[in-house]
Design a protein that fits this description.
eight-stranded parallel beta barrel, TIM Barrel, binds 1-deoxynojirimycin, Oligo-1,6-glucosidase, domain 2, five-stranded antiparallel β-sheet, alpha/beta
Length: 601
């Protein structure tokens, strides 16, 4: 089963949860001193905020967000406590995949602004101690990239071998693709090119041909792209689809994924589903990561972070992404916690524990939301346990639980614009309104990713303050903007926005929550997820999250963990809850959260 098509994650996560995948054996944690050294960089314990530029802030009234819009909102992001912004692609692009089909890696798409606007964003962000992280799409380019146009022009041009060209397989005198590989976005992954009389491989859309990473010239060209942006002052790169760079050199057919009837199961696009053992996470990717890291370290003086889009099945595979000598990614994304997609205390405990013990002291990067998956409102379920979207009865309580796991864990935290005000997934209801091509192709089973990409809701005015006049915005503004918006939540003391501001401030400023070690508490509790954070000077903080819609009361025995006090000073709790006096009785309402410092009584 392919795991890069992140829209499939709900299903994928369910399969993990159902035990299809075996978590790897955990390795022992490294010694304290090497752990400390590994966490001595700006990105450790940091907060990274993903912006989908089309949807954040439009400054010129064309209904599409832009760079000057982002610059105008830096004060807001600074107040939220953000250390870095990850921008999804802003390069020139035909926009088939809204920027993930790049046609020039060293320029800015005029829809988003100019290079001067970009430079101003970097320098204004720097004044606020905010780094800019670019999205680097290494697996594929646009078919309108001059590299591909040259490669496709003949079998003998200088770039003839820059992409994955293959001869047709002739079956009974008919031309067929070389094998059964399918695109993550539907249909065969092979496209016939009449000029070359060959197929080319595309993991994603037909307009996104895969580069040939076995070619040293391709590698060199992409490392130069990284250097170009480092010299413009970027703080790092998020590496798109990084596990997909290599494919089986023998082009072997993928095995079919079988349904309960023993026949290949059929996906939302009507294709027979296949595994990804020959097309994903091949070992050669580690050579590239080491080379790229060496290049970015040299150009950026060790200040440039490499973040990976790493949908992986086990903590062992995730661990490998850091490199045997810490010479690959500094922050491969841990998708195994955030995309459990249901409140299962045992699974959360197990996966967070794995991140603590299975990464040899490296920093985990937790993430719950991005532009490819339904927003965190997916954690709401109906009576039958199926995910529901929108504003359910416990929407805000659930949001506080998720923010607490994200920001009160020992991790780098990655969040998505709009999470902090509780924006909900708003998918199109009619096929003719869909903008994301996979939603058009897969309708109605696959509605695409528009629902999590709607414009940021800044205020209750025209276009929710996203666009400067009453322009037609590229995706509709969800009707909830009248009440769910930044301006309204800034006025409301108990809002989601204030919860995010407060918990991020604790992550930044409270020593135990900033970098203290983490230990799970009450391991047999099926209802409440609790953990202890303790810093080197002995400050101890307990965190408790009720994963159920029923009130719960928990008690803690911390003496075995070297914590002597039993009193509590509340740092943050669900609004309206009575503050507990001691660790002997911490009462939590439905999906309630409590964070408190342990003290002598
Ligand atoms: C992952 C990106 O997050 C997604 O939006 C994109 O469609 C694919 N990679 C292809 O680049």
């Amino acid at each position: 089963m392919k795991r890069i098509g992140a829209v499939l994650l709900l299903l994928t996560a369910f399969l993990w949860s159902a035990g299809e995948l075996t978590p790897a054996q955990q390795s022992a944690p490294a010694g304290q001193s090497s752990q400390t050294a590994k966490r001595d960089h700006w990105w450790n314990n940091a907060v990274i905020y993903e912006i989908y530029p089309r949807s954040f802030q439009d400054s010129n009234g064309d209904g599409i967000g832009d760079l000057n819009g982002i610059t105008s909102r830096l004060g807001y992001l600074q107040k939220l406590g953000v250390d870095a912004i990850w921008l999804t692609p802003i390069y020139p692009s035909p926009q088939v995949d809204f920027g993930y089909d790049i046609s020039n890696y060293e320029a800015v798409d005029s829809q988003y602004g100019t290079m001067a606007d970009f430079d101003r964003l970097v320098s204004e962000a720097k004044k606020r101690n905010i780094g800019i992280i670019m999205d680097l799409v290494l697996n594929h380019t646009s078919d309108k990239d001059p590299w591909f146009e040259e490669s496709a022009s003949s079998r003998t041009n200088p770039k003839a071998d820059w992409y994955m060209w293959r001869d047709a397989k002739m079956v009974d005198g008919h031309r067929e693709p070389p094998n059964n590989w399918i695109s993550d976005f539907g249909g065969s992954a092979w496209q016939w090119d009449p000029a070359r009389q060959q197929y080319y491989y595309h993991e994603f859309y037909v307009q996104q041909p895969d580069l040939n990473w076995n070619n040293p010239q391709v590698r060199g060209a992409m490392y130069n792209v990284a250097r170009f942006w480092i010299h413009r002052g970027v703080a790092g790169f998020r590496l798109d689809a990084i596990t997909a760079l290599f494919e089986d050199p023998q082009d072997r057919d993928e095995p079919y994924v079988l349904g309960p009837d023993g026949k290949p199961s059929i996906d939302a696009y009507g294709d027979k589903e296949v595994t990804d053992i020959y097309t994903n996470n091949l070992p050669e990717v580690h050579d590239v990561l080491r080379e790229l890291r060496a290049a970015t370290n040299a150009a950026g003086g060790g200040r440039v972070v490499l973040i990976g889009e790493t949908y992986l099945n086990s903590i062992a595979d995730l661990h490998k992404m850091y490199g045997a000598h810490n010479d690959e990614l500094q922050l491969p994304m841990d998708m195994q916690v955030g995309f459990i997609n249901r409140f299962d205390v045992g699974l959360f405990r197990e996966r967070i524990d794995e991140a603590e013990t299975g990464l040899n002291g490296d920093e985990p990067l937790f993430v719950f939301d991005n532009h490819d998956n339904p927003r965190w409102d997916r954690y709401q379920t109906d009576a039958a346990g199926a995910p529901t979207f929108g504003y359910g009865p416990h929407h805000d309580d659930i949001g506080r639980v998720i923010a607490t796991v994200l920001f009160a864990s020992r991790d780098t935290a990655m969040m998505y614009y709009g999470d902090e005000i509780g924006m909900v997934t708003t998918p199109p209801t009619r096929k003719e309104d869909v903008r994301d091509p996979i939603g058009i192709k897969g309708w109605p089973k696959e509605k695409g990713r528009d629902g999590e990409r709607t414009p940021m809701q800044w205020n209750a005015g025209p276009d929710a303050g996203f666009s400067s006049d009453d322009a037609k915005t590229w995706l509709p503004i969800p009707s909830s903007y009248k009440t769910v918006n930044v301006a309204a939540e800034e006025r409301e003391p108990d809002s989601m926005l204030h919860w995010y501001q407060q918990i991020i401030a604790l992550k930044r400023n409270d020593p135990a929550l900033h970098e203290g070690e983490e230990t799970m508490l009450n391991r047999s509790d099926d209802h409440v997820l609790s953990w202890l954070r303790k810093d080197a000077n002995g400050e101890a903080v307990i965190v408790a999250c009720n994963f159920t819609d029923q009130p719960q009361t928990v008690r803690f025995n911390l003496s075995a963990l070297g914590v002597s006090g039993t009193g509590l000073k509340t740092l943050l709790e669900t609004p309206g809850a009575p503050a507990p006096q001691s660790i002997d009785a911490v009462a939590l309402g439905p999906f309630g959260v409590y964070i408190g410092q342990v003290r002598s009584k």
